[in-house]
Each structure stands twice: as C-alpha cells, then as structure tokens.
Amino acid sequence: EQRNPGQPEFIQAVAEVMESLWPFISEHPRYAEHGLLDRLVEPERVIQFRVSWVDDRGEVQVNRGFRIQHSSAIGPFKGGLRFHPSVNLSVLKFLAFEQTFKNALTTLPMGGGKGGSDFDPKGRSPGEVMRFCQSFMTELYRHVGSDTDVPAGDIGVGGREIGFLAGMMKKLSNKASCVFTGKGLSFGGSLIRPEATGYGTVYFAEEMLRHAGKTMAGMTVSVSGSGNVAQYGIEKAMALGAKVITASDSSGTVIDEAGFTAEKLAVLMDVKNVHYGRVSEYAERLGLYFEAGKRPWHVPVDIAFPCATQNEIDGDDAAMLVRNGVKCVAEGANMPCNAAAVRVFEQNGVLYAPGKASNAGGVATSGLEMSQNAMRLSWTREEVDGRLLEIMQGIHRMCLQYGTRPDGTVSYSDGANVAGFVKVADAMLSQGVI
Ligand code: NDP
C-alpha cells in the first residue's frame, strides 16, 4: 500500500492473487527467489499522456490516456483499452495485472497489458468519438506494435472505436498491420471475436456444471450488463437451453421472467449497438418490467453471469444469491465479485469461476486473430469457435489440476491463479533478473 497509494483496485487484485498463491509458494519456495514476486507486482512500464481534442461546439477537451505494459514474460503485451469516466491508474493496473495471468491460461504466447482513458463516449457524436480516438493514437502509436504491444477493446471500445484507432495507427506507422485485435472483418478481423468473451464464459460455466454432474439446460440465468460480453453470453446461454431473465446497465435492470428470445436479443443489440441507448429504452420498446437504479442480484436464479464491471457483487449480494439457490457464478466481467463475495460463494459450495479463467475466451480469440494475421489467412466460424471451445476446456482442466481440494471439491480461483502464475513465473525465472 505504501508503494501504491490511492490504488485500491490494484491492491485488491494483488492481495486476492497472493492469498491464493501463498500455500503453493510455501510448498515450492523457489518461486519466492530472485525477487520474483516483487518483480511480478511491478508493471514493466506505465505510460500516461495528455489527449486533447476539439468537440462539436469547437471547444477544447482534455482527457488522460494510459497504457500499462505489465508483463512481456511470455509474449508481447496484450490487453484491451477502456474508455469510461471511472478509468484511472489503479483500475488499469489491476486490469493489466489480472490480464497477465489470464493470458498465460490461454496457453497462447501473450504477455499482459491494459490501457484506456477517462473519456466518456456516452452522448458524444460519432465525429467526436473519431477525433478523440485519433488524438489518443497520436501518442499511443509509438508504444505499440505487432511484436511489442497489441491492444484490443474493452468497456466503451467496440468495433467502431477499434476501426478509428487502427485506421490512425496505420496512417502514423505506414504499416498495414494496424496492430489492434478486434478489427472489422474487412481489414483483418477474426470471425467469432465479437462473440468470444460471452461464448467463452458460458462454455466455461457448462464445463464446471458438467464436472459437477449437471448441465445448464433448463436452468434460469441472470446477466448483468448489456454490452458486448453480456449480449453474447445471453445468446450462448439460450443456445445451451437456459432461460435468461435479466440484463442491466448503469440505469438499472430489466427483469423478464418469460426469458430472452432471439427476437428480443436482436432488439437489445439494436438499442445498444446501433443507437448507443439504455436498457430502460429496451424495456420500454418491449413493454418489459424495469427496475431503475438496481442490479440483478436479488432475482432468484440458478446461474449468475456478472458481465458489467468490477465490484458489482459484494458480500451481501452474494449472500442473497446463495439464499435464493444460486448454483454457479461465472464472471464475464473482470473482478465483478469482491473478495467477500468470493468467500461467500466458495464457503457455500457455489461453483464460482474468476474472470481470469471464465472470460479468457476474448483474449484467446484475439490471439487467434494475431495468428491468422501473421499467416495472412482467415479461418471459418466453425474453426475459430472450435478452437475457442477447446481453449476454454483446457483452462477448465488447468483449474482442476491446481485447484482441486483434498475433499474433491474445486477452488477455481486458486486453480486459475496458481496455473497462470506457474507459467509466467517459469518464464521469468528462465530469463534472469530483468
Ligand atoms: P461494453 O462497453 O460493451 O459494456 C459494458 C456494460 O457494463 C454496459 O452495459 C455498461 O453500462 C455496464 N457498465 C460499465 N461500467 C459500469 C459501471 N461503472 N456501473 C454500472 N454498469 C456499468 O463492455 P464489455 O462488454 O466489453 O465489457 C464488460 C466487462 O467484461 C468489463 O469488465 C470488461 O473488462 C470485461 N471483459 C471484456 C472483454 C471483451 O472482449 N470485450 C474480454 C474480457 C473481459 P453503461 O452503458 O450504463 O455504462
């Protein structure tokens, strides 16, 4: 805390991982040598810069841009950019730290990074978003590259923004590679990348349920958020026979006991992706019940997929979910459950998957986009989806390997933390003190 004052999210993420790792490191003390842990919690490089741009009224706006290059031990820095007013150094350092372990779990050669800005895209015109993205790139371009650091999307950065960022990258670098993943299909993007995080989270939950002798078919599901991860999580959960009864955003929660259908999901996607609107507008268009200002955790369900943002489930929310009979919680977002919530789930026999395991499908498919770009060819939907499923099943196996307790139950958080750590730590130990 003394080294990182005013960075509560970063300290929270490091403390949770270290608590998980401690028993393993006590048994394998070589992982505490050569200053390994001290080096692991210090980002390799932190970049902060000014982003100035002119809004539609002709006024100058100034935002803060960041890139955290946390670890390149196993490959180029890799992780998304987030545009949201809550972005600060602490949030991005926590995300870059988590990303390092997540990327290791995918088994693909990617290090960990994260970046973004406190820019708020809500209410901004397409022209303003483009000018902001272009200004952001005039600094970021010198720090990224296909073998150095490969950014992608996150909250507030979807296909439209990646297009603007990658376009400016190409202009400034005079290289067609564009560096980013999550690109449009017409300029090097991969099929299934938009779907990958949501699909992967649901695939992971199905693996957990199967290991426990259950299946998702026939279960009720709550989803928080209504952005990229939430939308495709809803789609895949429906495809596996579950009934999804909530979605949300910062305006509140829609509760639909009849459950989502393909037609309703298409309306949600239109509201969110075409009109950049609110969940309340979705509820209004379909005449559904909407609770302003509320999150979905009081709604009784078998499975919860938190897919909005960090710290959206606290100990009380978790206790309510448990009282209402929840069996499985898989994180689509990064660190949506705080430490108290995770304790409640793990102590009550709920199958709980941390984001670094369950939402790794997005970055894994970004890794597959990098492979396709390097080979200058494109795989089919089936090929990419098949690889995504295999990767999620592989991550599940690693969690079992390192997270199975003596009584046969599984701590997926311990499993994911130790498995990711071992890979990054072995690479760091091989490369000497750098
Ligand atoms: P989007 O911008 O597409 O959607 C974000 C959703 O979360 C929106 O519904 C948004 O509502 C809501 N939200 C964001 N911040 C808050 C907040 N402070 N309070 C309440 N609601 C909020 O982002 P993604 O779907 O891409 O990302 C969602 C989560 O998944 C994030 O934690 C991200 O890090 C994680 N993730 C994303 C991956 C990806 O491939 N996109 C990969 C791995 C993890 P509103 O519009 O009202 O703000």
Describe what you observe in this structure.
- With 434 residues, this protein is an alpha/beta fold.
- The chain is built from 15 helices and 13 strands.
- The protein has helices at 8-27, 36-40, 89-105, 126-140, 159-173, 193-211, 228-239, 262-274, 279-286, 315-323, 339-347, 355-358, 361-375, 381-403, 412-430; strands at 45-54, 60-71, 77-83, 112-117, 149-152, 220-224, 243-244, 246-249, 252-255, 289-292, 303-306, 328-330, 351-353.
- The strands form three sheets. The chain has a five-stranded mixed sheet, sandwiched between helices. Strands 7-6-11-12-13 form a five-stranded parallel sheet, sandwiched between helices. Strands 8-9-10 form a three-stranded antiparallel sheet, with helices on one face.
- α6 (193-211) crosses α13 and α10 packs parallel to α11 (339-347).
- It is globular and about 55 Å long.
- The site of NADPH dihydro-nicotinamide-adenine-dinucleotide phosphate has 25 residues, from α7.
Defining key terms:
binds NADPH dihydro-nicotinamide-adenine-dinucleotide phosphate, alpha/beta, 434 residues, five-stranded parallel beta sheet
User: Average pLDDT value?
Assistant: 97
What's the helix count?
A: 15
Sheet with most strands: strand arrangement:
1-2-4-3-5
- Helical amount: 40-55%
Organism: Aromatoleum bremense
Pfam families: ELFV_dehydrog, ELFV_dehydrog_N
Subunit structure: Homohexamer.
GO molecular function: glutamate dehydrogenase (NADP+) activity
